[in-house]
């Protein structure tokens, strides 16, 4: 038996060998993602690299207009000194502005050429392929959700720590959140103007503020672009779906003797998405990989056999596509599309017990599953594999040079993203009680009821007769920035400054169509015959428009019945978020020491975050008949407490907070000699006052040493970082549901309670300690085209904000955790007993691992024309341990759990051949084999220990990794006109099952490609 390790069946040896070969190949053919730096207005950017690795910069070829753009690689050491280049350098991850400054925090950079060659409709996809980004959300994730509001939201997660712990910036400035969690949507950025993306893979709160626990992703735009460039791209999957069309254009021009700079850009992107499959195991298109893989719970923990069984073709035996009597003497009676009864075919040779509990002998009572049999009612594949996405983006920037060194500017970004997905087919129901006298019940079943002396039976169905649910979020962003940047003489030198004001608004509207009101559905399925007509049994429901429906077979409800069950105005949520930022930063070199000038950066920032969310009255529980008279009329069947919809019960609420912070950062050169090399000390501190939680302090201390050994650099940094609770965690709109028979541990009895899901305004910021140690070997004289780096990281986060269930809240207080005791009142002396479900600072996360990054560049390899660049990155996650902080629970290590987002190994390797008039791109993406979860103990029958809650036993704890091969290329057709192509997932690698303990979507789009082979072609114009 093995705890937390993957089973290795014989068939996996080849996969394991491929993985070992790939690791070896990637170690040689990796790199190309390097540090880069931004320059101030009016200055020319030197091609330097803060990682010690080469950075790629686009340069116009002086040979003539027919030449394509090319990549040039220059090491930082060969860049011109300040006196020659005249350029100061801004490094993401630090506020220091100084030529030749080397930051200790590793930063990976994706340049404009790599973005273009990867040929994605959304720049998000290119960045998310970096191995250090794990668990990012995009159009392929969250599609099984109705209420989350994150469908189609493109946001990054560094180190697998979640999108809320990664700070995403645009030109070093914050962006208003596109969700109440505060994360922005990268789809709303002006993507054609992005000249590079800096990814800081370490804590940067001391430099950039809250949320930079996992790191920073900073999009740098071309603020001095001149000319016209355009891009038109089309794509389609191998299965004929997810048709995409992308159109981009940008224009820039200088006026008034090159002092006035105007830039405009516009984009339109349409991605049809991948629709849901049907009932059963029919995946969309010709995809044949879905097989309802599920972890079946035997419910037995101590017989020497595993408790959980990994099985394909799981069958839920409580419902079928067109209806199943699931308990009692008629159990096992199913109905076909015409409403005719027939004996249901249970899997596992199951035999219905026909008792009141509805068990099936030979199947698995815990969870209610068989294997095989009639799978036509399964609903798991009925979820969109990718949300449809339509985005429109307009951007403009105007800058005016007051003189050669100082600019004032204003920028506006107006963008909109519409997405849509199907979270599940129909609206599955089980445990319904149907009267035998219901006139829709077939006569033969009514006679069987009489013969068995029963008047009602338990019933379940997938509700295939109902239209499929459709969730349609729409996000609109309005962002305005005005500021000034430049340098002024002060205290014996030039000091750079950056002052700006930003106002951002995000409007999110979520509409849900084709979804039932549960009280109306429950009334409509209970029918009687009255005066010869079939009507709803409930007279109150009849008086308010109830139309009965026949749920025996495939009879589509009438238009009148659907209008009653699923009113046109379904669940709706309107959210308005605003962000205001005033920021001022300066940096300079006030004096020099023995090894060089001392650099200082300091600044202040004030920020205000606000949101207001309004849910529809049927979901929220507002009094019917207020401002929603016409759209949501009163109905005595519906609860004024809300939660009337099958799903999507959006709530109303509001919240705000403001932040005032200041920082100081310095770089002190310690060594500068041929004998000892060059070394510097970089330190920063920040004080931040939150209006909700008081003042916190963050800091970092690090340094680099360019050793006397040719090309060898060492670096190290340690920091204290924070993440403040977001608007949702602080001020979540309340959701109240009635929970009967709630266990009261204080009386050892039960009580009916209201469970109120609310925010917790008493939350404190999460606190993290981030340490990184690195070594860089860059461009030695004996191999000038080679660079490699290795960086170890260790992150510990305490006070992690996590939600508890109602029972956990009460049980924790009962066991002595006083922090939760004020969240409930079970006495009922002054009001209805209640438990407030909210988040607390109880959990912790510990993760560690290392990054490898390398590149090798050759000119005329093997005597052939052109330049060859071999580059790539790899990340190893040694551990990723989450501790809930709850008594009697065991921390869980998610490193290598491929059901999540942190595989043991993740690689990206890229080979680019630039032949002048043509380019060829080969790209490999790979992650290693893993487990379903380390909490499981893998064993075989007769060899299993006692299964426990913290360490359950399982017969197969293995998830294969995946290898994806992409190919692309371009050719110069005419002056400034380039045609290109790209094929992603060339070998059409299918996703691996990610089994759960239910029949939900058992795939993991956070790691695996769920779309399949994809083709793209396009034209670029750059003048």
From TrEMBL:
This is TonB-dependent Receptor Plug Domain. Keywords: Cell outer membrane, Membrane, Receptor, Signal, TonB box, Transmembrane, Transmembrane beta strand, Transport. It is found in: Cell outer membrane. Belongs to the TonB-dependent receptor family. Residues 1-36 form the signal peptide. Residues 103-216 form the TonB-dependent receptor plug domain. GO terms for cellular component: cell outer membrane. InterPro entries: Beta-barrel_TonB, Beta-barrel_TonB_sf, Plug_dom, Plug_dom_sf, TonB-dep_rcpt-like, TonB_rcpt_CS. Residues 70-86 have a biased composition (Polar residues). Its main location: membrane. It is a multi-pass membrane protein. Residues 38-88 are annotated as: Disordered. Residues 494-986 form the TonB-dependent receptor-like beta-barrel domain. The keyword Phosphoprotein does not apply. A motif (TonB C-terminal box) lies at residues 1006-1023.
């Amino acid at each position: 038996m093995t705890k937390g390790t993957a089973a290795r069946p014989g068939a996996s040896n080849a996969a394991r060998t491929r993985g070992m070969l790939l690791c070896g190949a990637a170690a040689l053919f990796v790199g190309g993602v390097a540090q880069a730096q931004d320059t101030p207005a009016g200055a020319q950017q030197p091609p330097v690299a803060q990682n010690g690795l080469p950075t790629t910069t686009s340069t116009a070829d002086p040979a003539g207009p027919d030449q394509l753009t090319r990549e040039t690689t220059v090491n930082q050491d060969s860049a011109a000194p300040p006196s020659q280049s005249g350029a100061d350098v801004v490094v993401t991850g630090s506020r220091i502005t100084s030529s030749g400054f080397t930051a200790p925090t590793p930063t990976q950079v994706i340049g404009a050429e790599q973005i273009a060659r990867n040929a994605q409709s959304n720049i998000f996809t290119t960045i998310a392929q970096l191995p250090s980004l794990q668990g990012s959300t995009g159009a392929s994730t969250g599609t099984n959700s109705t209420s989350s509001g994150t469908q189609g939201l493109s946001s990054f997660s560094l180190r697998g720590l979640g999108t809320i712990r990664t700070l995403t910036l645009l030109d070093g400035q914050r962006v208003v959140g596109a969700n109440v969690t505060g994360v922005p949507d990268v789809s709303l950025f002006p993507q054609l103007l992005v000249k590079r993306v800096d990814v800081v893979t370490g804590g940067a709160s001391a430099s950039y503020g809250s949320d930079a626990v996992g790191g920073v992703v900073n999009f740098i735009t071309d603020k001095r672009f001149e000319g016209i460039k355009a891009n038109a791209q089309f794509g389609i999957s191998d299965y004929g779906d997810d048709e995409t069309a992308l159109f981009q254009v940008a224009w820039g021009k200088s006026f008034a003797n090159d002092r006035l700079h105007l830039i405009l850009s516009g984009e339109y992107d349409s991605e049809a998405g991948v629709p849901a499959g049907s009932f059963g195991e029919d995946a969309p298109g010709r995809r044949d990989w879905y097989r309802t893989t599920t972890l079946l719970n035997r419910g037995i923990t101590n017989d020497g056999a595993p408790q959980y069984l990994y099985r394909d073709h799981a069958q839920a035996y409580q419902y079928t596509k067109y209806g199943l009597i699931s308990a009692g003497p008629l159990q096992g009676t199913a109905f076909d599309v015409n409403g005719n009864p027939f004996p249901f075919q249970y899997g596992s040779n199951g035999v219905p017990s026909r008792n009141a509990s509805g068990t099936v002998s030979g199947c698995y009572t815990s969870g209610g599953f068989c294997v095989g049999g009639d799978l036509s009612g399964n609903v798991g594949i009925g979820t969109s594999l990718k949300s449809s996405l339509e985005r429109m983006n307009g951007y403009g920037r105007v800058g005016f040079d007051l003189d050669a060194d100082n600019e004032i500017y204003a920028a506006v970004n107006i963008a909109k993203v519409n997405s849509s997905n199907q979270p599940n087919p129909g609206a599955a129901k089980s445990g319904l009680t149907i009267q035998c006298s219901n006139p829709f019940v077939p006569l033969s079943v009514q006679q069987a009821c009489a013969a068995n002396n029963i008047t009602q039976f338990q019933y379940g169905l997938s509700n295939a007769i109902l239209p499929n649910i459709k969730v349609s979020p729409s996000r609109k962003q309005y962002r305005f920035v005005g500021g000034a940047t430049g340098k002024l003489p002060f205290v014996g030198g030039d000091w750079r400054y950056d002052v700006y004001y930003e106002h951002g608004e995000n409007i999110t509207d979520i509409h849900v169509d084709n979804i039932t009101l549960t009280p109306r559905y429950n009334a409509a399925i209970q029918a009687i015959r009255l005066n010869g007509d079939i009507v709803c049994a409930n007279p109150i429901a009849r008086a308010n428009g109830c139309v009965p429906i026949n749920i025996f077979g495939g009879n589509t409800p009438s238009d009148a019945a659907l209008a009653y069950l699923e009113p046109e105005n379904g669940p709706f949520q309107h959210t308005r978020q605003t962000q205001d930022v005033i920021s001022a930063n300066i940096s300079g070199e006030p004096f020099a020491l023995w090894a060089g000038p001392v650099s200082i950066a300091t600044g202040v920032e004030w920020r205000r975050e606000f949101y207001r969310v309004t849910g529809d009255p049927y979901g929220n529980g507002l009094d019917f008949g207020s401002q929603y008279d016409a759209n949501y009329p009163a109905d005595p069947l519906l609860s004024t407490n809300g939660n009337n919809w099958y799903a999507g019960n959006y709530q109303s609420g509001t919240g705000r907070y403001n932040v005032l912070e200041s920082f100081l950062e310095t770089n002190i050169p310690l060594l500068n000699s041929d004998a000892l090399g060059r070394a510097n000390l970089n330190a920063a501190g920040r004080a931040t006052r939150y209006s909700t939680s008081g003042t916190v302090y963050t800091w970092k201390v690090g340094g680099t040493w360019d050793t006397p050994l040719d090309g060898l650099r060492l670096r190290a940094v340690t920091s204290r970082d924070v993440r403040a609770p977001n608007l949702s965690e602080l001020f979540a709109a309340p959701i109240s549901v009635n929970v009967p028979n709630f266990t009261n541990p204080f009386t050892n009895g039960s009580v009916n309670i209201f469970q109120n899901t609310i925010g917790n305004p008493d939350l404190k910021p999460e606190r993290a300690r981030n340490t990184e140690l690195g070594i860089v070997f860059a461009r030695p004289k004996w191999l000038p085209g080679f660079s490699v780096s290795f960086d170890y990281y260790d992150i510990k986060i305490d006070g992690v904000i996590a939600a508890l269930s109602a029972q956990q809240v009460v049980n924790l207080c009962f066991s002595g955790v006083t922090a939760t005791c004020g969240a409930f009142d079970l006495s009922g002396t002054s009001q209805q007993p209640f438990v407030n479900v909210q988040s607390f600072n109880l959990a912790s996360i510990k993760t560690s691992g290392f990054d490898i990054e390398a590149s090798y560049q050759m000119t005329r390899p093997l005597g052939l024309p052109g330049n060859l660049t071999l580059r790539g990155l790899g990340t190893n996650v040694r551990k990723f341990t989450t501790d809930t902080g709850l008594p009697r629970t065991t921390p869980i290590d998610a490193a290598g759990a491929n059901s999540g987002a942190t595989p043991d190994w993740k690689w990206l390797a890229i080979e680019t051949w630039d032949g002048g008039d043509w380019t060829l791109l080969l790209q490999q993406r790979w992650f290693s084999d893993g487990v379903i979860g380390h909490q499981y103990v893998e064993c075989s029958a007769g060899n299993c220990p006692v299964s426990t809650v913290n360490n359950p036993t399982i017969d197969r704890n293995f998830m294969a990794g995946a290898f994806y091969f992409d190919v692309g290329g371009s050719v110069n057709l005419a002056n400034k006109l380039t045609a290109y192509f790209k094929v992603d997932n060339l070998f059409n690698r299918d996703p691996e099952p990610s089994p759960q303990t239910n029949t939900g979507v058992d795939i993991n789009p956070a790691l695996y490609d769920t779309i399949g082979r994809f083709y793209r072609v396009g034209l670029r114009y750059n003048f």
